[in-house]
Amino acid sequence: MDRAQPRLSRRRLLKGAALAAVPCALLPAPSAGAQVATADYPPAEWQPASTSNYTPSDRPHAYTIDRVIIHITQETYDDTLAIFADPQRQVSAHYVIRSLDGHVAQCVHEADVAWHAGNWGYNTRSIGIEHEGWVDQPAYLTHALYEQSARLTAAICAKYGIPRDREHIIGHYQVPGTDHSDPGPYWDWVRYIRMVNFA
């Protein structure tokens, strides 16, 4: 007995057309083995730097992590993320903290070597944290920025066994060979180290 081929109903045809119009971003991932990049620090938002702006690695196996380096962006938060995403810029940091509310973005995985210190040896052994603002504008150094940065630094220190002191939590200006002055004269180191130790 011959069965008639099923006919496409108007409803089924419209459903197919609607599905075809759905953007790919809304559909499930096509391969089960694909991994989505996530932040190492759970409160952080993943905002990846261009792969042209850091060195892939396997830290702490390839290099010991024993420093946190504090930076000031000399840019807005959004412009800093755009710079790190631009493959022509040749610069990145692991994290960026927004001034207004202390929001944390991660741009480079901690296992990889971010290009933030201007010194290869220090890049390989450190986590770089950028803070939105300018060295000569203390209004950017909000309580929210200090608080969220201190929590992040405390988590990094706990993870890698880094002492929570000024020998191991340093400013960019302390990196040998640098021409930078950040985090600048308004950064309150006493307050910051105290907050890191109580976080």
What does this structure look like?
- The chain has five helices and eight strands, in the order H-E-E-E-H-E-E-E-H-E-H-E-H.
- The protein has helices spanning 10-21, 77-85, 120-125, 143-160, 189-198, and strands at residues 45-46, 54-55, 67-72, 95-97, 104-106, 113-114, 126-131, 169-171.
- Residues 1-35 have low confidence and may be disordered.
- Helix 4 packs across helix 5.
- The chain has 199 residues and is α/β, with parallel strands linked by helices.
- It has a six-stranded mixed β-sheet with strand order 1-5-4-7-3-8, sandwiched between helices. A two-stranded antiparallel ribbon has the order 2-6.
Nutshell version of this structure?
28% of the residues lie in helices and 14% in strands.
